[in-house]
Amino acid sequence: MKTLLRSVFVLFIVASLASCTKVVVNQGSSLSGSWILYDAARATNYGWQTINTGLENGVFTFYDDGSVTYRDNQITMRGSWYIYNSTGDYFDDGGYPRYGAHQSLNVQLSGYNNSYITLNFENFLYGGNSFVGTDYYAGRAERYEFRRY
Prior knowledge:
- There is one protein chain.
- The chain is mainly β.
- It has a single domain, classed as Lipocalin, CATH 2.40.128.
- The chain is 11% helix and 57% strand.
- The protein has one helix and eleven strands.
- Strands 1, 2, 3, 4, 5, 6, 7, 8, 9, 10 and 11 form an eleven-stranded antiparallel beta sheet that branches.
- A hairpin with a 5-residue loop joins strand 6 and strand 7 (97-110).
- The N and C termini lie far apart (64 Å).
């Protein structure tokens, strides 16, 4: 009986680990450097509508070690970032629902007086001097485009 229980436990652990779809990718130098939020938009029935995020006047600086800073005229925040491979539902950069393998980006920053920034892009596309992150928020797809500073 103990052997059976041990075997079931081992199979459970193996099955649990095999079903994980989140694999952290080496941060690498591809995203390293300074970036500004060039455009943020929300999908509507009539196309993309520009939204004001409050991040338009700041600079994000990504470092190879997974740390990140955000600075604008009033505040400096520090935190971490990582890119990971995912499989599942997501919205592409056109705002269309998709299913499959894709890369995602998570950015977490905090600052003075309990201020924080959380960017969790379910779909992340890097293009050298720009990157686009999309997510589903409040019933709509949102797209953030960043460009090198």
